[in-house]
Structure formats: structure tokens, C-alpha cells
Write a structure and sequence with these properties.
Blueprint lengths: L2 H6 L8 E4 H5 L8 E5 L8 E5 L2 E7 L7 H4 L6 E4 L4 H11 L1 H29 L1 H22 L9 H6 L5 H4 L1 H8 L6 H18 L4 H14 L3 H19 L3 H14 L6 H18 L6
Parallel strand pairs: 2-4
Antiparallel strand pairs: 1-2, 1-5, 3-4
Helix pairs in contact: 5-6, 5-14, 6-9, 6-12, 6-14, 10-11, 10-12, 10-13, 11-12, 12-13
Bound molecules: zinc ion.
Length: about 290
């Protein structure tokens, strides 16, 4: 799709607009949406539109952004509208600080994973499925951390591909242990179709923005192309992001546990969970050593 068709959909072109995500990196599949970032200095929720049979996600952003997790996503934005060159200046500042942004972001992800692991430990005693949820979140944060240390972004549909192409190193060696804790080896056609329905349902309840049609589009593509582990990883990543929107509310967590049980493929195995917590804690502690940061 040409940029002009996207720009026609944007109400005002006085603000800079960029294309982010996997399409800016040119690693996209046909199923991937266009991740359009409008720097209109608002914090409106994302919206999703369909253009020429493809999905476009409109995301609103701020040129004074300082949150490290957001800046880390802006490494490779392609400018599609920039009347006053503001976006060009903003992106060149980010480029200058790329290494320190990614190192700080990585550290933040590791700390986030440690918080999840502490919560998992508490829930091991009281609620197995919720403990499983925290363990998976911790594992996804560690993947984010390692990718950032490799100078890569997490584009969840493509992450396993990115991982397959990372160079062998002590740092990257731990990835297979992490993906084992996520549960990739469990991915089968029938499990994935159940996970997909619940993941869509959870997204509709939390995001309320039609993201679920994109989720289905991508999952169907991955399943049709026999990329079952990639699909499992992708759906889990969607659930991690949405779970985090309710993670401070024990009431909502218990309300949504039944849908997450299927969508996030939560398990009930305390022995396994305890060993996952120990494995992931050890990896997190290693990652915080100065040699990586
Ligand atoms: Zn993609």
C-alpha cells in the first residue's frame, strides 16, 4: 500500500506521521498490519482501520516522549509526513542515544521480569493458573531484554525468526530455556485454535478496539504456513500485553483467569512452575551483570 493512501485517512496532516513496526523493517508477512504513528502529542487509544483489504493501526504519540520502553520502539521509524522536520530531528536524537536507550530498556525489562517472578512465587501457594500467568510474563520480558541487548526489537510475529538468526553467544544461549518456560513445545493445531478464540475475546474485553481482527488474521496466516511455535509465541505476547493492563487489579485478574487459562495456555503443575521460577530468576540475575549492560 502506498503511503499516500494511509495519509488520506489521517484527519490532519499538520502533525508528523511515521511508519513503525515490521513493515518499516521490511520483514513483514502479507498478514502484517501497518503500524502508523501519528505524533499529535495526544494519548488517544490506538484505533484500527481497514484500507484496501489491509489493516492499519493508528497509534498516537508525543514528540516529547521520554519513556524508555516507548523510545526503544522508535529506532527504525520511517517518516511518511513531516512538514516541519520535527520528526526527523526527534528520530536523529534517538539514533544518537540508541545504545544507551536499548541498554536501559533491557534493564527495565529484566527488573519487570523479576517483579513477575516474585508475584509468581506468591501465587504458587494460592493459585496455580495465576502463577503460570506471571511466569509467562516474566519469560516474555526476558526475551524483550535479550533482544534489546542484541539491538533488536520484539515484533512478536517475527520474534522466533529473529531469535533463529541471532549469533551464538553466552547471552543468547539462555533463550531456549526461556522459550521452554513460555511453553512453545505445546503448540498444536487444536490448541492454537482454542488459544486464538480466547486471545481474541480477552483483547475485545481489554482493548475494545477491533485488534482481535488483526490477531485472527496473523494467527491464521501463521497456522496455515505451519509456523505453529511462532503462532504460540505471538498469541502469548498479545496476552502478556493485555494482562499487563489489568495486572495491578487482583479483582480483574481473578475475573479474567478463566479466559487467560485457554488464551495464555496456563498450566497447573507446581513442580514445573517452581523450576521455571528458579531458571528464569537465574537468567534475570545473569542479565543484570555489567558485562551485558
Ligand atoms: Zn509483522
Amino acid at each position: 500500500m502506498e503511503n499516500k493512501i494511509i495519509l488520506d485517512k489521517i484527519p490532519s496532516l499538520e502533525h508528523p506521521v511515521g511508519l513503525g513496526g515490521c513493515r518499516a523493517e521490511k520483514i513483514n508477512h502479507v498478514c502484517c498490519d501497518y503500524n502508523v504513528v501519528i505524533f499529535d502529542n495526544t494519548d488517544l487509544d490506538d484505533s484500527i482501520v481497514e484500507l484496501e483489504n489491509e489493516f492499519v493501526r493508528l497509534h498516537h504519540a508525543n514528540l516529547n516522549e521520554s519513556r524508555i520502553e516507548v523510545l526503544s520502539q522508535y529506532q527504525n521509524i520511517q517518516i511518511i509526513n513531516d512538514p516541519k522536520w520535527e520528526l526527523k530531528i526527534f528520530l536523529s536524537k534517538i539514533k544518537e542515544k540508541k545504545e544507551s536507550i536499548l541498554a536501559t530498556y533491557s534493564k527495565k525489562c529484566v527488573i519487570e521480569s523479576q517483579v513477575c517472578l516474585a508475584k509468581a512465587k506468591d501465587d504458587l501457594v494460592t493459585s496455580e493458573p495465576v502463577a503460570s500467568c506471571w511466569i509467562k510474563c516474566a519469560a516474555y520480558f526476558l526475551i524483550d531484554a535479550i533482544l534489546a541487548l542484541n539491538g533488536k526489537q520484539n515484533f512478536p510475529v517475527h520474534t522466533l525468526d529473529t531469535i533463529r538468526n541471532l549469533k551464538l553467544s553466552k547471552l543468547n544461549d539462555s533463550i531456549s530455556l526461556i522459550t521452554e518456560c513460555i511453553g512453545l513445545e505445546r503448540s498444536t493445531h487444536s490448541l492454537l485454535s482454542r488459544m486464538l478464540k480466547s486471545t481474541q475475546g480477552f483483547s475485545d474485553m481489554i482493548e475494545k478496539n477491533n485488534h482481535s481482527v488483526i490477531i485472527k488474521n496473523k494467527a491464521d496466516y501463521l497456522i496455515e504456513n505451519s509456523l505453529l511455535s511462532d503462532c504460540y509465541f505471538y498469541l502469548g505476547n498479545v496476552n502478556r500485553n493485555n494482562f499487563f493492563k489489568i495486572s495491578n487489579s487482583p479483582k480483574e485478574i481473578s475475573e479474567f483467569t478463566h479466559v487467560l487459562k485457554t488464551g495464555f495456555d496456563l498450566e497447573n503443575d507446581s513442580v514445573k512452575h517452581e523450576s521455571y521460577v528458579n531458571t528464569l530468576n537465574e537468567i534475570a540475575n545473569n542479565l543484570l551483570k555489567d558485562e551485558w549492560m
